Amino acid sequence: MAAPSVYAAICAITAELATQGIPKRRTNETDQYNYRSIDDVLNCLAPLLVKHRLCVLPRVIEREAAERQDDKQQMLINVALRVAYSLVSVDDGSSHVIEGYGEALDAGDKATSKAMSSAYKSAMIQAFCIPVGESEDADATTHKLATKTHVPEPIQGWDQWWRDIADIVSVCESEQAIDTVQERNRELLKAVSRERPELYEHLGGSFTDRRQEIRARNVNHGRPSKPRRSRSKTDACLQAAEA
Known about the structure:
Layout: H1 5-20, E1 26-27, E2 34-35, H2 38-51, E3 54-69, E4 75-89, E5 95-106, H3 111-127, H4 158-170, H5 175-184, H6 186-195, H7 197-220, H8 231-242
Helix pairs in contact: 4-7, 5-8, 6-7
């Protein structure tokens, strides 16, 4: 019994690519490495697919998108795809399905198409055993992402945490005490600014309002802007901030 024509076509295309390959003629401008573009792969594969009567039909199985920032604080869209490719022989309709994964970043609306190109290149390189001398990347330019340190949500949750901090700030008797609260909660303040920006805005208002109250009180009492600390309330404030 003869093997399905799809496998004969795959084998024939692999045999031709094994001798001529797809040269890496392009250079990544940021990281200075050579790569094959999606056009290079398509231009080489298209005539071979026609010659050996093989169709490649893509179908996106999974798609995930998220917002990221690069090292210049520019907002980027990150798209990750899992794509199934049906290799179908025109001769007898036999088929074989392979999968490819692609991921890409873009500041506009091209992240999905870039990820599709990446997935296609990866799938075709593996299916037809195209030699790879270096790591394969999606594009000729590279976005450098800002380092993001993960800070877990407080045990009591963000809503209760910001209320607790606001209560602590409300009893601070000096701006020095407020500075200490901010310093000891610096990482959580950064985290809440990313996770819950509306709470971060409320907290900013609490810090600002309390500073203005302290300054107004000092002006009314004819004292300097940084008075001697009141040990009772201020020390309690700092102890609560440490907790």
